[in-house]
Amino acid sequence: MPKESLSAQILAEFPVPKDRSFLYRVRQALPDLHPAEKRLGEFVCDFPGELASYSAQELAILAHVSKATVTRFIQRLGYENYEEARRHARAEKQTGSRLFLTSAADVSTAQSVQAHVSQGVANLEATFLSITDGQIEAVAQALLQARKVWVLGFRSSHPFASYLQWQLTQVVEEIVAIPGAGQTLGEHLVSVQEDDMVIFFAMRRRIAQIDTIISLIRKSKAKLVYITDESAPFEGGANWHFSCQTLAPGPLFNHTAVMALCHLLITRCLEKAGPEGRKRLRTIEALNEGLDEL
């Protein structure tokens, strides 16, 4: 008797409600499917976006199974019909899962360097059409005047928060990236004050507690810069909400515009810091030289 896979054991140990995730329905059903249905299930797990985009007949052709197999497969997942399953898959597609961003055709088609460059340029242009010089000036001024700056990011947003904090340390003395390794957010949020500033990176896929965190920041009355991708709804509670385009020719998001925004904010802060900012930079460089670290 074949040994049950680790993934199947995990899914059995931690069952997920059926209405929570389309992909979980598929993964939970896989061990009990007939061969043709299992082949279809594995195809859907690899390319769930295909079900969200195509008809039952088109999906059958892509997965090399019969339309009747598609019908039985959908019923085994607990859906009344294919359209109900497709609506569920489309809803899940909006969460930003990378699995939904690729297709079976993409696997055998390498995207050219020019395609990636062109998309990066297009993302930059689309992002900065909605960002004004006045907004950048206001954010830079608020950063320099804040009692303390908190830079926040989870998952893929965490590196952007760390990068911005690292660069701004050159001109902003009281700045910290949160949460750090082994830390929870509570011990930081308790210290956020009205004259502080929070920069919150929230690129997809976002954690479930986003709204709660924003609500807590608003209660503190600290200024909030909210930086997201284009899929996030506009956040009226933020002082500034910058939406960055992240489209890409492949399955991963393109964060060129996010880094460009970081660079712009850092540079504008350095420019506005004036003589005091340059003095801090000179001192940092002198200390690095004296410590023989670089």
UniProtKB/TrEMBL annotation:
<keyword id="KW-0805">Transcription regulation</keyword>
<dbReference type="Pfam" id="PF01380">
    <property type="entry name" value="SIS"/>
</dbReference>
<dbReference type="InterPro" id="IPR001347">
    <property type="entry name" value="SIS_dom"/>
</dbReference>
<feature type="domain" description="HTH rpiR-type">
    <location>
        <begin position="20"/>
        <end position="96"/>
    </location>
</feature>
<dbReference type="InterPro" id="IPR035472">
    <property type="entry name" value="RpiR-like_SIS"/>
</dbReference>
<dbReference type="Pfam" id="PF01418">
    <property type="entry name" value="HTH_6"/>
</dbReference>
<protein>
    <submittedName>
        <fullName>MurR/RpiR family transcriptional regulator</fullName>
    </submittedName>
</protein>
<dbReference type="InterPro" id="IPR047640">
    <property type="entry name" value="RpiR-like"/>
</dbReference>
<dbReference type="InterPro" id="IPR000281">
    <property type="entry name" value="HTH_RpiR"/>
</dbReference>
<dbReference type="InterPro" id="IPR009057">
    <property type="entry name" value="Homeodomain-like_sf"/>
</dbReference>
<keyword id="KW-0238">DNA-binding</keyword>
<keyword id="KW-0804">Transcription</keyword>
<dbReference type="InterPro" id="IPR046348">
    <property type="entry name" value="SIS_dom_sf"/>
</dbReference>
<dbReference type="InterPro" id="IPR036388">
    <property type="entry name" value="WH-like_DNA-bd_sf"/>
</dbReference>
